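Workshop exercise sheet. Pairs work together: one partner reads the sequence aloud, the other fills in the structure field after running the prediction. Swap roles for the next sheet.
Pair: D.N. / O.F.
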Amino acid sequence: MLNRRGYSQSQSVNRQSEIGSLRYPYRMDQHPIYILSGGSGETALRMVAAALTQFHSGDVSVVRRFQNVFTHEDIERILQLAAEKRAVIVHTIVSREQRIFLDQRCADLRLTQVDLFGDLLNTLGLYLRESPDERPGLFHAVGDRYFKRIEAIEFALKYDDGADLSGIATADIVLVGLSRTSKTPLSMYLAMEGHRVMNVPLVPGVPVPPELDGIPQGRIVGLTIQPDRLQEIRLNRLSRLGAGGFADKYSDMGHILEELTFAEGVFKQHRRWPLIDVTGKSIEETAGLVLDRVFGKERAV
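Structure field:
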């Protein structure tokens, strides 16, 4: 049975070959497929699985994946095994030297081989006028970074504006500040860089969530702003929303000064929180300062 980790060399041939959730009945020892890769082989495995869905004869006996194929000796050993079963070779070997060796040995042993990367690498190399790195595993490294960003974005959305603090222990960064101190856009920007960010609003008269005291204080960053800039931002927001009712209080300078005084008191009580004044700073600039405070040279001890 083919699982997500592939076959071990000692694994016996089963009555079925399973690829993902697809099962292919077969006649014993007929039409084996051997996958070779300098990395995990996951890309080739998925491509073979996708291709096999287009066939209904049910003659695939086994799909075996050989990972971390680095040397000519590795290739030779696998091809000798393949020759005994007359297997088709499918590979994603990125080293040009190894591809040439594999191609020659397959010709010597009269084995059919499919090079999933070779032609594409050669064509792109000519088109881009650049030689490929020929390092296996790079695709999955890129994929891992992509999925990390997606996870971080989902995290930032779920824990935006203190709506839920249950995930605070797994947050990389927690932003704390008054309304309109760029907490949400900053959270999303940092999430796009792969950081799990939660933001918590400060509201006069509302106690600071006790959950903040239960995590390393160096992860928490306070955001402050100059009163005239905060008033300007709030007035612009109210104008766009056409808000009424509480609008006068929300943008009133006296009320803003009260809020800033409250926030200043909170920050003084939590002196281990790095504090950043966002006045006049772009999101990119502020994000860089946050990363410096939490992870970089200015990290709080």
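Discussion prompt: The beta strands are 16-19, 22-25, 33-36, 63-66, 88-91, 113-115, 173-177, 197-201, 220-224, 275-277. What would you look at next?
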